[in-house]
Structure formats: structure tokens, C-alpha cells
Amino acid sequence: MSEQGRAEGIVIAIDGPSGSGKSSTAKGVARVRELRYLDTGAMYRAMTWWMIEHQVDVDDAAAVADAASRPVITMGTDPNAPTVQVDGSDVARAIRGQAVTENVSAVSAVPAVRSLLVRQQRDIIASACAETAGIVVEGRDITTVVAPDAAVKVYLTASAEARAQRRSSEVSATDVAATQADLARRDLLDSSRAASPLTQTPDAMELDSTGLGLKEVVALVVKLVDDAPARVA
Ligand SMILES: Nc1ncnc2c1ncn2[C@@H]1O[C@H](COP(=O)(O)OP(=O)(O)O)[C@@H](O)[C@H]1O
Ligand SMILES: Nc1ccn([C@H]2C[C@H](O)[C@@H](COP(=O)(O)OP(=O)(O)O)O2)c(=O)n1
């Protein structure tokens, strides 16, 4: 504890597979408790978008590693208006495109990409904790690698069917079966890679959101936040 015993911002870490509700839940919790919000998946997507734009072969891990330090990725952490920029341009829409979604697992498996982005994520978390009440961070390795000492750790799941249904209802006329196959492909890549695979640690609270509404899930996580012991720096 410092001489002043100053209150330190809280860190809430949420991991889980695609479509489990991480982004919506994290934003909801951050709004309710006036915390910052960080979508780490958007950072891997931004890196992938830059690689595609610059014609780097995303299946060539050495080429990706060589280029990884070139894009400047900037994240805005207001949960009411989160932003993602690459080299000063807004890429929020572009990073949700099909080319990025198809290639993001390959880019995020490259250790040089991960070490760069994890360092940046930790810097964002440290600033939020120093300057605000704290931050909700979501991704695949937040509870295990980025913030293993987070005050609240959640592993959010939902059945494969529910996740595919949710994802495909975001876009009109999307084939649920095709979406489910794409999620399964990405889950497998993200869970089986050597570098920081998606894993559930025993100290992360498992929350199965199948059959639960978003409001209920947010309320459950807010309760965990409220019950977490206060930290001082
Ligand atoms: N508990 C829930 N019940 C129903 N739909 C949900 C729930 N949580 C999230 N959603 C919806 O599912 C979709 C995917 O959620 P999102 O938060 O983007 O997941 P993730 O970040 O894990 O990929 C979004 O359209 C979101 O509104
Ligand atoms: N902390 C993280 C977050 C995302 N990733 C990778 C793995 C995911 O397939 C991609 C995209 O993440 P994102 O959260 O945007 O994925 P979805 O919203 O679930 O489609 O990034 C990662 O490796 N580590």
C-alpha cells in the first residue's frame, strides 16, 4: 500500500469463445459501474486488417512477426462509444469484415503479435486503474495472461447453437449453420494454438449464458464486481 492508501481501479477480466456475449456483457458492466472498457479482440482484428491492407501474407508467421510493430493501434475505452483506430483512421467497421474474421486467428497465433498487443493492453489497464475507477477487459487470454490478478475473472460460455444464433441474427439473412461452422473453426484455432490459447482457469467463474438474457448476465457480473474486495495501491 502507498503512503496515501489511494484506492486503485478494479480490473474485471472476461474470456470466452466467440458469440458467448463478452463484448455486450463487458460494455454493460462498464456502463453500470462507470468503468472503462477494452475489447482486445478488436486489437487483434485491427492488426489483421493492417496486414491485409499492406499485403502481408497472413499465413507466413515470420512475415507477420516482422511487420507487427508497424501499425499504430489506438483504442478508445469509453463503454458508450468505444473506438479503434489504425494509424489515425477509424477502422471500427472495417475490422468486422469477412476477410479479417477469416484471418484473425492466424495473425493472433503469432507470438510477436501477442507480446506487442499484450504489452499495450497492460499499459491501457494500468492507466485506467490509475486515472479511473477501473476497467472491464474482454478477450481470450485476459484471465490467464493479460490480467491474471484481476479482482473478478469470468469465463463466459453459451452453447454452440446459441452462439451461432446470436451471431447470425446480427446480420440479416445469414445462414445459422454456416455461422456455427465458422465459429467452430475459429474456436478450434483459438483454443489449440501454442501461444496463449483460450483456456478456462479454475479461479475464473464460469457463467453459461445459454438461456439467459443480456440484462441477467450483466447483473450477475455486476454482483461479482460489487462483492470483490476493494484494492488499494
Ligand atoms: N445473454 C445474451 N442473450 C442473448 N443475446 C446475447 C446475449 N449476450 C450477447 N448477446 C448477443 O449476441 C451477439 C454476440 O454477442 P457479443 O457480445 O458480440 O459476443 P462476443 O464478444 O463473445 O463475441 C450480440 O448480437 C449480442 O447482442
Ligand atoms: N485476447 C484475445 C482476443 C481475441 N483474440 C483473437 C481470437 C479471435 O478469434 C479474434 C477476434 O476476437 P473477437 O473478440 O473480435 O471475436 P468475436 O467477437 O468473438 O468474433 O482475436 C485473441 O487471440 N486474444
Task: Please provide a brief summary of the model.
With 233 residues, the chain is α/β, with parallel strands linked by helices.
Question: What would you report as the Rg, rounded to the nearest angstrom?
Answer: 17 Å
CATH C-level name: Alpha Beta
What shape does the CA trace take?
globular
Mean pLDDT across every amino acid position: 94
Q: Provide the CATH topology.
A: Rossmann fold
Largest sheet: 5 strands, parallel
Estimate the strand proportion: 15-25%
Q: SSE order, as H and E?
A: EHEHHEEEHHEHEHHEH
Q: CATH H-level name... which superfamily?
A: P-loop containing nucleotide triphosphate hydrolases
Structural class: alpha/beta
Number of helices: 9
Sheet with most strands: strand arrangement:
2-6-1-7-8
What gap, in angstroms, lies between the N and C termini? 5 Å
- List ligands, each type once: adenosine-5'-diphosphate, deoxycytidine diphosphate
Helix coverage percent of residues? 40-55%
State the domain count.
1
- Tell me the total number of β-strands: 8
Name the poorly predicted regions: none
